[in-house]
Amino acid sequence: MNEEKDMADARTILADYRASIDNIDAALIHMLAERFRCTKAVGVLKATHGLPPADPAREQQQIARLRQLAKDAHLDPDFAEKFLNFVVREVIRHHEQIAATNGVTKTN
Ligand SMILES: O=C(O)C(=O)C[C@]1(C(=O)O)C=C[C@@H](O)C=C1
């Protein structure tokens, strides 16, 4: 019956999209893991030199850059900003933990 064939075709197309979604999600996880590997090293560098965990000026530059990249890629720039802020908040939390255990205190 036609309805059954339509449904079977839709399921095939859905499975195909899902295979791409699974690959993209895997890439996102690997990219995030690599980013956090890098920011953990930044956290150690900052802590051992008495640099503050957060750098609001750098964050503003990143937000402006990512918003433009998002617009060019037809992605909602507000979503891109929220996503960056979410990641950066977690990075700052790691930096603070690293500083609490390995940090030096700047006296000047
Ligand atoms: O570039 C830095 O100084 C970092 O610590 C990395 C990072 C980021 O995750 O992009 C995190 C915290 C800072 O506020 C700014 C940027």
Automatic annotation (TrEMBL):
Known EC number: 5.4.99.5
Look up the signal peptide feature and give its range: none
Instruction: Give the keywords, sorted.
Output: Isomerase
Per its UniProt record, what InterPro entries does this chain match?
Chorismate_II_sf, Chorismate_mutase-related, CM_bact, CM_dom_sf, CM_II_prokaryot
List the SMART domains hit by this protein, alphabetically: CM_2
Chorismate mutase domain residues: 8-99
User: Ligase as a keyword?
Assistant: no
Single GO term (MF): chorismate mutase activity
**Is Isomerase found in the keyword set?**
yes
Taxonomically, which superkingdom? Bacteria
Q: Which PANTHER family match?
A: CHORISMATE MUTASE (PTHR38041)
NCBIfam families the UniProt entry points to: CM_mono_cladeE, PRK09239.1
Protein's name according to its UniProt entry: chorismate mutase
